[in-house]
């Protein structure tokens, strides 16, 4: 019983925070993110995904539409920043893909 409650809590927590991040990005759709904002948001999304996966949150919850929206936006912003700034220097969404595959 407690395990189900904890699992549900983690599911709701992940979903709520990913929705918050996605909403924030959607409200700023017409604005480019500053490189610092982009680096921080990439770190937050990568860490959140990995940590909640380790806590047993189901892949169907982790890979929600909102997660895809956040990930796609950060990937586009990263590409734009790489061209504009000459690179992200040490952090990228691609690193996230490679690290996630290594964890499996």
UniProtKB/TrEMBL annotation:
Tell me the segments the record calls region Disordered.
Answer: 85-104
Query: Which processes are annotated in GO (biological process)?
Result: dense core granule exocytosis; positive regulation of exocytosis; synaptic vesicle exocytosis
Residue ranges crossing the lipid bilayer per the database entry: none
- What Pfam families has UniProt attached to this entry? MUN
Known InterPro entries for this protein?
CAPS, MUN_dom
Origin: domain of life: Eukaryota
Q: Name one GO cellular component term.
A: glutamatergic synapse
The residues forming a coiled coil are none
Query: Locate the MUN domain: which residues?
Result: 5-52
Q: What PANTHER family does the annotation carry? A: CALCIUM-DEPENDENT SECRETION ACTIVATOR (PTHR12166), CALCIUM-DEPENDENT SECRETION ACTIVATOR 1 (PTHR12166:SF6)
**What protein does this entry describe?**
Calcium-dependent secretion activator 1-like isoform X1
Q: Could you tell me which species this protein originates from?
A: Lates japonicus
